[in-house]
Specification:
With 258 residues, the protein is α+β, with helices and mostly antiparallel strands. Helices cover 40% and strands 19% of the residues.
């Protein structure tokens, strides 16, 4: 499931919900639907779409653990009184039980098993963003097979590893596909600006994208193409094509949905 930060959400000054944090939040919310306690390794595997008990490098586990601990210390407030009032005007709209959603971004207990060395997470309650998204029916659900882009069916794809950048591009376009499907139900076609992808990637504190360096930008554009090609192979898209504007060869991407 994919939960996004709504407008009007209040976070501590200087903190923004970056791409990696967003993926952690979504993976933890998903896992908690099936098990009350899970390991950092299992969390990483769900983020990548791998088998839940696959091995995860210690360095990767530490990186995600540090971020989980930080998120567990961040408080968030969503003031939804206006949204609640607006939806109450029509019974066909989802009715919000709460006018305010507040708590830690990822309310969790975190501890290490001294014998196994595994680090465990238990969510104390559903994250405020998840509760808000559930009440407003704004949760996007995806098949688990869509998380792993290294394979299309039983065949290997051009994507060798689910790197943080590939993962972030995947999640960005899953949101965009959902947006287009709601806004353009007749044509099933919609544009996405390359600049909007760049902006999303630059918000990630663990990102490696440097927009000032040509090789870095080329690598992002290659990963965008690979992700979208895999989406076509998996049936998430019919097609996609880049379109220029003026001197910009890569201005926007036109997605054609099934």
């Amino acid at each position: 499931m994919i939960v996004s930060l709504p407008s009007g959400a209040s976070l501590p000054q200087g903190y923004d919900l970056g791409a990696t944090d967003s993926t952690i939040l979504n993976a933890a919310s998903t896992l908690s639907q099936f098990t009350p306690v899970f390991t950092i390794a299992q969390l990483v595997n769900v983020m990548n779409g791998d088998a839940v008990y696959s091995e995860v490098k210690p360095a990767t586990q530490k990186e995600i653990l540090d971020r989980v601990k930080y998120m567990a210390s961040i408080r968030i407030t969503i003031k939804a009184a206006a949204h609640q009032k607006y939806n109450a005007e029509k019974r066909s709209r989802p009715q919000l039980e709460h006018s305010t959603f507040t708590g830690f971004l990822l309310p969790a207990n975190i501890w290490e098993d001294g014998i196994s060395g595994e680090t465990y997470i238990r969510l104390l309650q559903q994250p405020p963003l998840y509760t808000y998204a559930k009440e407003t029916r704004q949760i996007i659900t995806e098949k688990y097979e869509m998380m792993d882009l290294t394979h299309v069916g039983t065949k290997k794809s051009p994507i060798r590893y689910m790197t943080p950048q590939v993962r972030n591009i995947r999640d960005f376009f899953l949101r965009e596909i959902n947006r287009i499907s709601k806004q353009n139900k007749v044509s099933g076609t919609g544009p996405v600006l390359y600049e909007s992808v760049y902006t999303y990637l630059l918000k990630d504190p663990y990102g490696t994208f440097d927009i000032t360096k040509k090789p870095s930008k080329q690598r992002v554009n290659q990963n965008i193409a690979r992700v979208l090609d895999v989406f076509v192979g998996k049936g998430k898209l019919i097609s996609w094509k880049p379109e220029p504007k003026g001197r910009k060869k890569l201005y926007r991407i036109v997605l054609q949905l099934p």
